[in-house]
Amino acid sequence: MSLFCITIQEITNLVASVNLTISSIYGPFCNFTGTIFENERICTIQNFRLQNFDSSCKRIIGNVIIGSGDEQYVEKMRNVTWIYGSLLIEETQLANIDFFDSLEYVAFFNCKR
């Protein structure tokens, strides 16, 4: 059995496809840390902490959680265009989420790394 990984190009094509339905994908993500795709920096994040988030990351691989106390840091998310993972906003005092104006896709895949 050969081992493969899912590339950022493959993920992007799948998510952006208009007439494609996928019930499940099995396979690990390739290592994208420090790479650039379509002129956007990709960052793989294991334990997301908005306070420590590098705002030069435009594509995030990992689960993004914005919680109580993160309100003062949300502007760091202004340039994010893709999240390859889940997005959870909970227990905040946020009145709006306009800091996500650049966000185009949140693509959650149940893939093992």
Automatic annotation (TrEMBL):
Pfam families: Recep_L_domain. The gene is Cnig_chr_V.g17926. Residues 57-108 form the Receptor L-domain domain. Transmembrane segments: none annotated. PANTHER family: RECEPTOR PROTEIN-TYROSINE KINASE (PTHR21662:SF59). InterPro entries: Rcpt_L-dom, Rcpt_L-dom_sf, SPS2_domain. This is Receptor L-domain domain-containing protein. The lineage of its organism: Eukaryota, Metazoa, Ecdysozoa, Nematoda, Chromadorea. SUPFAM superfamilies: L domain-like.
